[in-house]
Amino acid sequence: MYFFTAVSDEIQPTRVAFHRLSRTKHLVLGAVFASLAALFQAAGGMLPIIGYLISPLATAPLLLCSMLSIGLGCIAYLLANLLLLILQPSELIVFPFTTGLLGLGIGASFYFFKKRLSIIISGASLLTAGIAILLYGFKFPVLGPSVSGTFSYPVFGCIFLFSFFYSWIWVEAGLLYLKRLKTIIAS
Protein backbone atom coordinates (compact mmCIF):
# COMPACT_ATOMS: atom_id res chain seq x y z
CA MET A 1 0.00 0.00 0.00
CA TYR A 2 2.97 2.31 0.45
CA PHE A 3 3.49 2.63 -3.31
CA PHE A 4 -0.18 3.41 -3.95
CA THR A 5 -0.48 6.37 -1.59
CA ALA A 6 -1.11 9.78 -3.13
CA VAL A 7 1.82 12.15 -2.70
CA SER A 8 0.74 15.08 -4.84
CA ASP A 9 -1.35 16.48 -1.97
CA GLU A 10 1.78 16.79 0.17
CA ILE A 11 3.45 19.24 -2.19
CA GLN A 12 0.42 21.36 -3.07
CA PRO A 13 0.88 23.89 -0.20
CA THR A 14 4.49 24.48 -1.27
CA ARG A 15 3.42 25.08 -4.87
CA VAL A 16 0.79 27.57 -3.71
CA ALA A 17 3.39 29.44 -1.62
CA PHE A 18 5.79 29.40 -4.58
CA HIS A 19 3.24 30.81 -7.02
CA ARG A 20 2.57 33.71 -4.65
CA LEU A 21 6.16 34.88 -5.16
CA SER A 22 6.93 37.49 -7.80
CA ARG A 23 8.08 36.58 -11.30
CA THR A 24 11.53 37.95 -10.50
CA LYS A 25 11.88 35.66 -7.50
CA HIS A 26 10.81 32.72 -9.68
CA LEU A 27 13.58 33.46 -12.19
CA VAL A 28 16.19 34.01 -9.48
CA LEU A 29 15.24 30.74 -7.78
CA GLY A 30 15.40 28.93 -11.14
CA ALA A 31 18.84 30.40 -11.85
CA VAL A 32 20.10 29.36 -8.40
CA PHE A 33 18.79 25.82 -8.91
CA ALA A 34 20.38 25.64 -12.39
CA SER A 35 23.74 26.86 -11.08
CA LEU A 36 23.70 24.34 -8.26
CA ALA A 37 22.88 21.54 -10.69
CA ALA A 38 25.72 22.59 -13.00
CA LEU A 39 28.20 22.91 -10.13
CA PHE A 40 27.27 19.53 -8.67
CA GLN A 41 27.58 17.86 -12.08
CA ALA A 42 30.86 19.62 -12.88
CA ALA A 43 32.31 18.43 -9.58
CA GLY A 44 32.71 14.95 -11.11
CA GLY A 45 35.28 16.28 -13.55
CA MET A 46 36.91 18.91 -11.34
CA LEU A 47 37.42 17.01 -8.09
CA PRO A 48 39.05 13.61 -8.66
CA ILE A 49 37.48 11.33 -6.04
CA ILE A 50 34.99 13.36 -4.00
CA GLY A 51 33.51 14.83 -7.17
CA TYR A 52 32.04 11.48 -8.18
CA LEU A 53 30.17 11.40 -4.87
CA ILE A 54 28.94 14.97 -5.35
CA SER A 55 27.85 14.75 -9.00
CA PRO A 56 24.70 12.61 -8.40
CA LEU A 57 23.40 15.53 -6.32
CA ALA A 58 22.85 17.42 -9.59
CA THR A 59 19.43 15.76 -9.72
CA ALA A 60 18.17 17.50 -6.56
CA PRO A 61 18.04 21.15 -7.74
CA LEU A 62 16.28 20.25 -10.97
CA LEU A 63 13.90 17.94 -9.13
CA LEU A 64 12.89 20.65 -6.67
CA CYS A 65 12.59 23.29 -9.37
CA SER A 66 10.42 21.01 -11.53
CA MET A 67 8.25 20.06 -8.57
CA LEU A 68 7.45 23.73 -8.05
CA SER A 69 6.92 24.62 -11.73
CA ILE A 70 7.40 22.54 -14.88
CA GLY A 71 8.19 25.59 -17.00
CA LEU A 72 10.80 26.86 -14.57
CA GLY A 73 12.23 23.33 -14.33
CA CYS A 74 12.69 23.22 -18.12
CA ILE A 75 14.37 26.62 -18.09
CA ALA A 76 16.67 25.52 -15.26
CA TYR A 77 17.49 22.30 -17.17
CA LEU A 78 18.47 24.26 -20.29
CA LEU A 79 20.43 26.81 -18.27
CA ALA A 80 22.30 24.05 -16.41
CA ASN A 81 23.25 22.52 -19.77
CA LEU A 82 24.55 25.87 -20.99
CA LEU A 83 26.52 26.39 -17.78
CA LEU A 84 28.04 22.93 -18.15
CA LEU A 85 29.08 23.85 -21.68
CA ILE A 86 31.22 26.57 -20.10
CA LEU A 87 32.31 24.85 -16.86
CA GLN A 88 32.88 21.22 -17.84
CA PRO A 89 31.99 20.34 -21.46
CA SER A 90 32.83 16.66 -20.94
CA GLU A 91 29.94 16.35 -18.47
CA LEU A 92 27.55 17.67 -21.11
CA ILE A 93 27.38 14.18 -22.60
CA VAL A 94 26.10 12.56 -19.40
CA PHE A 95 24.04 15.26 -17.68
CA PRO A 96 21.23 15.80 -20.23
CA PHE A 97 20.53 12.06 -20.46
CA THR A 98 20.93 10.94 -16.85
CA THR A 99 20.89 13.17 -13.76
CA GLY A 100 19.34 16.19 -15.45
CA LEU A 101 16.66 14.18 -17.22
CA LEU A 102 15.86 12.28 -14.03
CA GLY A 103 15.38 15.47 -12.00
CA LEU A 104 13.24 17.09 -14.68
CA GLY A 105 11.21 13.92 -15.27
CA ILE A 106 10.44 13.13 -11.64
CA GLY A 107 9.59 16.75 -10.89
CA ALA A 108 7.24 16.94 -13.87
CA SER A 109 5.64 13.60 -13.04
CA PHE A 110 4.48 15.06 -9.71
CA TYR A 111 2.15 17.21 -11.81
CA PHE A 112 0.81 14.39 -13.97
CA PHE A 113 0.55 11.51 -11.50
CA LYS A 114 -0.75 11.25 -7.96
CA LYS A 115 0.48 7.85 -6.83
CA ARG A 116 4.04 7.24 -5.65
CA LEU A 117 4.49 4.15 -7.85
CA SER A 118 3.59 5.92 -11.09
CA ILE A 119 5.97 8.78 -10.26
CA ILE A 120 8.79 6.32 -9.54
CA ILE A 121 8.13 4.32 -12.72
CA SER A 122 8.07 7.43 -14.89
CA GLY A 123 11.41 8.57 -13.44
CA ALA A 124 12.88 5.09 -13.84
CA SER A 125 11.66 4.91 -17.45
CA LEU A 126 13.25 8.25 -18.33
CA LEU A 127 16.54 7.33 -16.67
CA THR A 128 16.57 3.93 -18.39
CA ALA A 129 15.85 5.58 -21.73
CA GLY A 130 18.62 8.12 -21.18
CA ILE A 131 21.16 5.46 -20.23
CA ALA A 132 20.08 3.28 -23.17
CA ILE A 133 20.46 6.20 -25.60
CA LEU A 134 23.98 6.87 -24.32
CA LEU A 135 24.97 3.20 -24.15
CA TYR A 136 23.34 1.80 -27.29
CA GLY A 137 22.69 4.88 -29.43
CA PHE A 138 25.87 6.91 -28.94
CA LYS A 139 28.01 3.92 -27.87
CA PHE A 140 29.21 5.98 -24.89
CA PRO A 141 30.36 3.70 -22.03
CA VAL A 142 28.26 5.41 -19.36
CA LEU A 143 28.32 2.27 -17.19
CA GLY A 144 32.01 1.65 -17.64
CA PRO A 145 33.99 -0.54 -20.01
CA SER A 146 32.64 -3.79 -18.59
CA VAL A 147 29.15 -3.22 -20.07
CA SER A 148 29.02 -3.89 -23.78
CA GLY A 149 27.55 -1.41 -26.25
CA THR A 150 25.46 -4.12 -27.92
CA PHE A 151 21.88 -4.54 -26.73
CA SER A 152 21.22 -7.26 -24.18
CA TYR A 153 17.93 -7.93 -22.38
CA PRO A 154 19.56 -8.90 -19.05
CA VAL A 155 21.67 -5.73 -19.03
CA PHE A 156 18.64 -3.64 -19.99
CA GLY A 157 16.63 -5.26 -17.17
CA CYS A 158 19.40 -4.55 -14.67
CA ILE A 159 19.53 -0.94 -15.86
CA PHE A 160 15.77 -0.62 -15.28
CA LEU A 161 15.98 -2.19 -11.81
CA PHE A 162 18.81 0.17 -10.86
CA SER A 163 16.84 3.10 -12.31
CA PHE A 164 13.74 2.08 -10.34
CA PHE A 165 15.56 2.05 -7.00
CA TYR A 166 17.48 5.23 -7.84
CA SER A 167 14.27 6.98 -8.84
CA TRP A 168 12.58 5.77 -5.65
CA ILE A 169 15.38 7.31 -3.57
CA TRP A 170 15.03 10.61 -5.40
CA VAL A 171 11.23 10.70 -5.06
CA GLU A 172 11.52 10.27 -1.30
CA ALA A 173 14.40 12.77 -1.08
CA GLY A 174 12.44 15.27 -3.18
CA LEU A 175 9.43 15.03 -0.88
CA LEU A 176 11.66 15.50 2.15
CA TYR A 177 13.51 18.48 0.64
CA LEU A 178 10.30 20.11 -0.55
CA LYS A 179 8.88 20.04 2.97
CA ARG A 180 11.98 21.86 4.17
CA LEU A 181 11.90 24.26 1.21
CA LYS A 182 8.32 25.19 2.14
CA THR A 183 9.56 26.88 5.31
CA ILE A 184 12.14 28.86 3.33
CA ILE A 185 9.64 29.98 0.67
CA ALA A 186 7.02 30.91 3.26
CA SER A 187 9.45 33.25 5.07
UniProtKB/TrEMBL annotation:
Transmembrane segments: 27-54, 60-80, 92-113, 119-138, 150-171
Keyword check for Transmembrane helix: yes
Sorted UniProt keywords: Membrane, Transmembrane, Transmembrane helix
Protein name in UniProt: Uncharacterized protein
